[in-house]
Structures are given as structure tokens and as C-alpha cells.
Amino acid sequence: xxxxxxxxxxxxxxxxxxxxxxxxxQGLPKLAKKSTYKVGFAQxxxxxxxxxxxxxxxxxxxxxxxxxxxxxxxxxxxxxxxxDVDSMIAQRVDAIFLAPREEKPLAAAVKKARAAGIPVxxxxxxxxxxxxxxxxxxxxxxxxDFIQEGRRVGEWLKKTTKGKATIIQLLGTTGSSPANDRxxxxxxxxxxxxxxxxxxxxxxxxxxxxxxQVMETLLQAHPDVNVVYAxxxxxxxxxxxxxEAAGKKPGKDVMVLSxxxxxxxxxxxxxxxxxxxxxCNPKFGPKAFETLKNYAAGKQIPAKIINPDREFTRENAxxxxxxxx
Length: 325
Description:
Blueprint: H1 3-15, H2 18-26, E1 38-43, H3 49-65, E2 68-73, H4 78-90, E3 95-98, H5 103-115, E4 120-123, E5 140-143, H6 146-161, E6 165-171, H7 177-190, E7 196-203, H8 208-221, E8 227-230, H9 233-245, E9 255-260, H10 263-270, E10 276-279, H11 285-296, E11 304-306, E12 311-312, H12 317-320
Parallel strand pairs: 1-2, 1-3, 3-4, 4-5, 5-11, 6-7, 6-8, 8-9, 9-10
Antiparallel strand pairs: 10-12
Domain Periplasmic binding protein: 39-300
Pfam families: Peripla_BP_4 (PF13407)
Protein name: Periplasmic binding protein/LacI transcriptional regulator
């Protein structure tokens, strides 16, 4: 344990609430320049292709660099992910990559790691900005602009339908930053359009099966719907199954819009069952570890590092299919 980390724990034990106070006084923990690192990666879940692709990218890059990667899977539980971060702190990892399950519980975990002298880099999702801040409590956020993703879907729909749509919105996990922001971006984009109405918005937990179940229920209540906006591909694919079971043609009777751009979903765009997808690229490994090395070298790291994302339409889906994750 380095002297600063030891001092932090000692004073925290004496003051009770000193952990947060000391962390604020210290600033972000330093990271020594070394040839190899022991790095934690606290994944939120592994139940869909996007997460599996993200994990593989992180593991592949760590292996290429010769770093030890301490990997955990929270299984969709914020409480388990908090415990995973605690375990990484106990193992004295050099740094932690964290894909937060939910914004508020993981903000506290970020601050705990920081107080222990371990820098944290957030991947894909953020934590509650009122509780933890980039450049103060964690190094940076690497990921997509979720508000912009939702806005792009809304703008495309507005243009394509000339401002006329009856919409069901399948929301991502309640309390997660992608769900919050993708909803905001989309709703901001269509606000003021009298001919565009969201008749229902319900949590599908970014899950294919739950997306299908929710869509089946909402279709019964709103049989006149002609647009489904799903916050990710998994829910969009689940919605397609529900639409087909109800005798409707996805992509024609009901437009299907999504975010992520996995290969299975992009193939559905090429087949005409999904109308539009904004990409959210999961291949974080190279950028994540490059940022870690830059931080150790003392370089200035921006508060947000935004990944470039493409869009998939019927016109380009076949051509871009091989490059989808």
C-alpha cells in the first residue's frame, strides 16, 4: 500500500466521514508509469451480444498489452457491482474500468475507489453527476453520446414520417444513463410535433425477452401503433417477435427503430424488418487502455471521450454488415 493510500485509510478510520473529505483534498489518484498493470474491469452483465463484444474487446487488448485483467460480471445487479468494486479495491488493482449498472449506487463505489487511491475510468455508462464528477472523482467517461443517439433517431423519424407517428418506446434499464439519455434525446427531437405521439413508454431492461413481453402487452392496449423505438437492439428484436406474433409486418406495418448496431440487428435492417439503427460501438478495449496509459504519463484527459458512431439504413446495411459487431 502506498503512503497516500495508507494515510487515507488511517484518517478515514479516525474521522468516520473523513473518507470523502480527504478524497476531495487529494484530487484524482496518481498512476505510476509501468510496463504492466493489474487492472479491474467491473462489467454490468453478460446477457447480450453488445456486452459480450465489449468484454471481449477489453480482454483482447489487456492480453495484447500483457496486463493482468481482474474481470467481474455483476449479472445485472447494482449491489453485486458495488461488491465487485470493493473486491477490486481489496485486491489493490492499479486502476478500475467500470461500466456502471445504475447511476446512483455506483457513484458511491467510484468515490470509495478514489479514496483508496485507485483511479476509475467509466465505460459506456456514467454515474450520477451530482454525486461524482469527472476529473474529481473519476478520470473520464469513454462512450457514446446517448442524448445524441436518441436525438438522431427522433430526427430521422420526424423527417421520414413528415411528423406523423404513433409511437411505443421500449425503455432501457431504469436508472441507467443510456435509458435516461436516449429517452431525453428522442423526446426532445420530436417535441412540438403535433402529429407525433408517444402512446406508451415502458422499461424493457435492454432485454430481448422482456422487450418481447412488454411489446405484446402494449400492442394489445395500442393496436394502432405504427412506430416502435427501442433503446437497444435486443429489445427491438424482441419487439419484432411480438409484432409478427400479432400478425403485423415489422418494418412495414410498424416501423422499428433501434440503437446499438449488432450484426443480427443490422441484418434485419438489410432484410427490411428494422428501419433505422444508430450505432453504439462496444469495442472499447483499444481506447480504454490508451487512455489509461495517457493518464499514467501525466497527459491531460478530457472529462468525456466520445466514440464516433455510424447509422444503419436499408441503403447501407448490406454493405456495412461485415463490420458490425
